[in-house]
């Protein structure tokens, strides 16, 4: 119970911030500071009783004071969101629209970028209600401001700056047309009742344009650090410009005045910084690393990662007695002792830390982390895992990853999880909760968690590459290899709402189910596509042998009264009566490897050499490397059967309509067939597109991207 009357100088709350000693320090903030800030929200910024404010900040973060008390003290509305929703940018945009949010008071610039990207990639209509966004915690840039129009075209952004010791914010800058875009966005001018001093080392004011350290005084100043009188005396010093007993706070921020009375932020005097909106003392992370018995030296720096975000990288030197030290394990060790924002994105083990000629740490000589060296060797086992691996690698900026690699061990962080979830949604049509990525950050784990097909199911006749979407599905028929996995590359080239299915040879692993003719294959595949889409119009695509099958399917569907809206043939040609092409084992190998985009091995005698084939597949990280000798033998037997039915099934049916054709122009011989070979079997136009690649390359990128662009344009007609 209170024993004395409440005074404006009494504590309103204690908020803990990072400390360079490894121990957080509690900042004691007064009622006067809070009230002064709330008055700024209403009197200066113009927060009104009709405003609906989105609460993004955790109650353990001082930004929650403005999110909650800002609107509630004037009769406004607060929209509370769960922490999971606050991390899911698509879900946040839904909340803003559904709740008619008018103001967001606690935006970090990196979150602003993520929300803008989510709004743009999902094609959302900008909010008509959102009128105010207040940004703080990191440097705000013009590209971030320009991109924010995707969230709301009419909202006003305010750049805020200031430490916890200044009650959340000490300066502010409305971002508008009066600012010059060829200069950085300033952090602005002081709030009412707050004073800013830019001083040199002798506490003398510096003129405009000269760099100095920022000191704060006035109503926003905190009381000090909870039960830390020495630290309080060090940072809260006597103010030579105020009244008797008045103090000012030494921020450690380097700033300079502009001629118009606004401030530019230039950097820090120490190694304290903000990463993804959270203040971090690099020394605190170093102190945690030193607690590990095998660490002799440690240094932590902030670098810009491949996505342009701040990244914490730790460098350690092991003790002479350490048997071995692993960066990933050290990173996980820090995670057991420190909160998430203090866990480095990477830990690099070095034999020694680089130093300058005078013996100080040379931070500029510290190498960038090489995440590619951490990639494991187990490659994808299914087409879906291949798509997931591609999405992980794309977001992380790597060439490839293994299915057992953790997203976070390879440099992923909380902001990138949103980008990864959005990419997976676009490629596979899977709505992935961010919590799932944090709990299961590997491709192998996600495959099991999401219930995706295993390696055996991935050899079924119907292969759902992207089963979800609003558009009519595109059915892609396999080439002679019998596999439709190669069409997974289409997912990154087509609209995210375009479903894609592959059709694969029946009986790849069961010889008794193999078809005897193209007509039999067409009948089987029509039953498969009808199970997905009972009635037309149908969209069919086939490559090589798959083109012949797709043509037969199209003619048969028309005979059954169905509409075929698209028939696309990729370098596929009809077979005339009497034509015969015998195939060698080496051609079987070439057919398989050409279809999956891997250079085929050349065996000494041209015979099937399963260990050599498997090793080539394993070196390429391809899913088929997991097949044993018996399964490989069955696969090549299925390919041989495809060659047989291609040879013994002359083309006789006619398609009533236009055909979209793609010719592979590289490596053609003088007697190679041309698109004109289809004239007797097509009643409409045959529109030919020349693709600058070899026949075996048509299923790979970048050529498949060119093909996809033409197909999508025709499907939208």
The average pLDDT is 86
| β-strand number | 27
Secondary-structure class: alpha/beta
End-to-end separation in angstroms reads 74 Å
Low-confidence stretches: none
Number of helices: 19
Backbone CA Rg: 32 Å
Oligomer: single chain
- How would a crystallographer describe the biggest sheet? 7 strands, mixed
Which percent range fits the helix content?
Answer: 25-40%
List its salient traits.
alpha/beta; seven-stranded mixed beta sheet; about 30% helix
Provide a concise account of the structure shown.
The protein has 717 residues and is of the alpha/beta class. It is built from 19 helices and 27 strands.
What does this structure look like?
The chain is α/β, with parallel strands linked by helices and 717 residues long. 30% of the residues lie in helices and 21% in strands. It has 19 helices and 27 strands. Strand 5, helix 5 (109-121) and strand 6 (132-135) form a beta-alpha-beta unit. The longest helix has 20 residues, at 629-648.
């Amino acid at each position: 119970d209170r024993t004395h009357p409440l005074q404006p100088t009494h504590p309103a709350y204690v908020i803990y911030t990072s400390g360079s000693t490894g121990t957080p320090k509690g900042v004691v903030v007064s009622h006067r500071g809070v009230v002064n800030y709330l008055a700024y929200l209403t009197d200066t910024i113009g927060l009104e009783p009709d405003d609906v404010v989105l609460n993004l900040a955790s109650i353990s973060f001082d930004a929650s004071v403005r999110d909650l008390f800002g609107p509630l003290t004037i009769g406004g509305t607060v929209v509370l969101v769960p922490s999971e929703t606050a991390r899911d940018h698509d879900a946040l945009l839904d909340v803003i629209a559904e709740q008619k949010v008018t103001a967001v008071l606690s935006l970090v610039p990196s979150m602003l970028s993520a929300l803008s990207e989510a709004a743009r990639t999902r094609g959302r209509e900008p909010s008509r209600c959102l009128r105010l966004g207040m940004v703080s915690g990191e440097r705000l840039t013009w590209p971030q401001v320009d991109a924010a129009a995707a969230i709301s075209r009419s909202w006003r952004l305010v750049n805020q700056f200031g430490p916890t010791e200044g009650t959340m914010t000490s300066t502010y800058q409305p971002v508008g047309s009066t600012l010059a875009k060829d200069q950085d966005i300033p952090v602005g001018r002081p709030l009412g009742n707050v004073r800013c001093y830019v001083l040199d080392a002798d506490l003398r004011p510096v003129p405009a344009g000269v760099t100095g350290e920022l000191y704060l005084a006035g109503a926003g100043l905190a009381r000090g650090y909870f039960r830390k009188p020495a630290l309080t005396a060090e940072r809260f010093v006597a103010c030579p410009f105020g009244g008797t007993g008045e103090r000012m706070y030494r921020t450690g921020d380097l700033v300079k005045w502009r001629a118009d009375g606004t401030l530019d932020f230039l950097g820090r005097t120490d190694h304290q910084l903000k990463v993804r909106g959270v203040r971090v003392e690099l020394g605190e992370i170093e102190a945690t690393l030193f607690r590990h018995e095998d660490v002799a030296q440690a240094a932590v720096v902030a670098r810009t990662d491949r996505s342009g975000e701040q990244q914490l990288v730790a460098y350690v030197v092991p003790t002479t007695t350490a048997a071995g030290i692993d960066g990933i394990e050290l990173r996980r060790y820090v995670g057991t002792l420190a909160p998430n924002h203090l866990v480095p994105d990477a830990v690099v083990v070095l034999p020694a830390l680089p130093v300058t000629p005078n013996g100080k740490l040379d931070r500029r000589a510290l190498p960038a982390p090489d995440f590619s060296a951490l990639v494991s060797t187990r490659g994808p086992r299914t087409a879906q895992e291949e798509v997931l691996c591609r999405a992980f690698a794309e977001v992380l900026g790597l060439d490839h990853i293994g299915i057992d690699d953790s997203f976070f061990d390879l440099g992923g962080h909380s902001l990138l999880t949103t980008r990864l979830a959005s990419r997976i949604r676009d490629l596979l049509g899977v709505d992935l909760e961010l919590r799932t990525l944090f709990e299961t950050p590997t491709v192998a784990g996600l495959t099991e968690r999401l219930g995706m097909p295993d390696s055996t199911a991935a050899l079924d006749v119907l292969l759902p590459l992207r089963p979800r979407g609003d558009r009519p599905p595109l059915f892609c028929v396999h080439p002679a290899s019998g596999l439709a996995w190669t069409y997974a590359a289409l997912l990154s080239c087509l609209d995210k709402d375009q479903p894609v299915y592959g059709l694969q040879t029946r009986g790849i692993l069961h010889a008794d189910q193999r078809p005897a003719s193209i007509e039999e294959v067409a009948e089987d595949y029509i039953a498969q596509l009808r199970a997905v889409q009972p009635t037309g119009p149908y969209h069919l695509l086939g490559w090589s042998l798959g083109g012949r099958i797709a043509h037969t399917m199209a003619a048969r569907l028309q005979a059954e009264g169905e509409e075929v809206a698209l028939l696309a043939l990729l370098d596929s040609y009809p077979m005339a009566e009497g034509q015969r092409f015998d195939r060698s084992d080496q051609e079987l190998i070439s057919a398989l490897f050409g279809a999956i985009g891997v250079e085929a091995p050349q065996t000494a005698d041209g015979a099937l050499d399963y260990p050599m084939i498997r090793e080539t597949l394993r070196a390429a990280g391809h899913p088929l490397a997991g097949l044993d000798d018996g399964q490989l033998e069955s696969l090549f037997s299925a390919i041989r059967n495809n060659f047989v039915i291609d040879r013994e099934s002359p083309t006789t049916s006619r398609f009533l309509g236009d055909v979209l054709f793609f010719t592979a122009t590289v490596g053609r011989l003088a007697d190679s067939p041309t698109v004109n070979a289809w004239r007797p079997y097509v009643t409409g136009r045959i529109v030919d597109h020349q693709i600058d690649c070899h026949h075996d390359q048509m299923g790979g990128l970048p050529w498949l991207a060119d093909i996809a662009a033409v197909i999508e344009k025709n499907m939208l007609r």
